[in-house]
């Protein structure tokens, strides 16, 4: 499996609202059309109203590459830039756990 965790910091409350709307539209398309995307979860952070954390888990690197090539993903990546103050990405290697085996 192949995964990542991303911490996004929005510019302000208005951009956080717009970011959440963009995320909702994007996740709907991921849910419906990306069987290799096992988990794609967006979280709010308690006490940090401008931060969002994504946890993404893919069947393998090829599934991630397929995700990145999708029109909805390209739209998300382009549109988010105007809404964010910062983005931090951690690439993950699964050691063990409980969840979807793919």
Automatic annotation (TrEMBL):
Highest taxon above the source species: Bacteria
Gene3D superfamilies per the UniProt record, alphabetical: 3.30.70.100
Domain ABM: 2-96
Pfam families for this protein: ABM
Coiled coil: none
Name under which the protein is recorded: ABM domain-containing protein
Organism: Streptosporangium oxazolinicum
